[in-house]
Structure formats: structure tokens, C-alpha cells
Amino acid sequence: MNDKLMARSGGKCELCQKEADVVVHHILPDTYADNEVVVCKSLVGQVEGTEPLNPEAWRFLPDAMWSEVPAVQVLAWRMLNRLKDEAWASDALDILYLDDDMLEWAKALGEQGEAREAVVHKDANGNILQNGDSVVITKTLDVKGSSLSAKLGTVVKNIRLVEDNPEQIEGRVDGQLIVILTKYLRKQN
Fold first, then answer.
1. C-alpha distances in angstroms, 133 versus 161, 165, 178?
2. What are the tens digits of pLDDT across the range 145-171?
3. Are 14 and 91 in a shared domain?
4. DSSP H helices in the chain
5. Domain assignment of residue 67, yes or no
6. Which part of the chain is the PhnA protein N-terminal proteobacterial domain (predicted)?
7. How many C-beta atoms lie closer than 10 Å to residue 16's C-beta?
């Protein structure tokens, strides 16, 4: 962390103001000056979309959005937009004012550039599934468009997660690749 950032942040997260392990996060695109923010390590994964977004962890945003640091305001605006289904975040967005240049910066990445929320696949018991796991089918399932029936208790090895749908995985049953709903699966240990 450079001296300027250290002095500005006081070694604290510029969003939540906690004295925790912090890292420097770059606000893209890089065409804007002073585009670095000091952020808690615990929040970076959610900012970057590599961890699921936990709305309760962001309750401080209505305070952070009034920061005098443009990069902090832009990051607060982006996170509030990702949380806008929460009443408190929607209310904060309604009163947040960014001048035209900062609003342009905040919107600069558009839909394609925003961090995508991490898709987490869970079995019927809430266990997180990963590519390559083995699962057990918990209900006999008829496979659409086929005479195949995936029987209760069938072990499906080396599954693949359906990237954009947390409720589906792909796996081979009797040599045929099928899509299975995660609510009918139990992770095998």
C-alpha cells in the first residue's frame, strides 16, 4: 500500500471503517485517476464476485456512500446497485448523488463488466457441490426425452456444475450425460 493510500485510509477499510486485514482494490476502468480503495480482505471476494453476495455484510454502505473519496463513492454505488433488491440499499440509492463524471465512471463497465455474483451449487442437505464431486440421487427420476430412469441411490461420479444455474448439475447415468436438479442429490463423502 502506498503512503498516500495509507494516510487517506489510516490503515482501515474505507468502506466499513474496520481495522482489519486490508488490501488495495482497483476500481475499473483504469482510465480514472485515484481509482484505488482500501478494502477489508473479507469483502474483496464479494466485490469481485468470487464469493456469494451477503447483503447483511454490507449494511454500512449508506454511511460509506458519503465518503469524500470518489473511488469509494463509485464502489459504494456499484455495490448498492448489486444489492438494490434489499429495501435499505434501494433507499440509499434513492438519496445517493453522484455528479455526471462520477456517475459515468460508476456505470463505465456496464452489465458485462460488473462482478458477477458467484453461483453456489448445494445439494438437498445444503452441502456445497464442486466440479468432480460424487453425488447420490435421492429420488428416482425419469429423464425427459429418454426411456432412461435415474434410480434412487445411484451414485453419479465426477459431476460438472451448470455454470449459470445453481439448481442443476451434469453427470453420467448409465453412460448417458444428463442434467440433474441439485434438490434430488446428496453429496457423497
1. 10, 17, 15
2. 888 899 999 999 999 998 878 899 999
3. yes
4. 3-9, 41-48, 61-64, 70-82, 87-95, 100-107, 110-113
5. yes
6. 4-48
7. 19
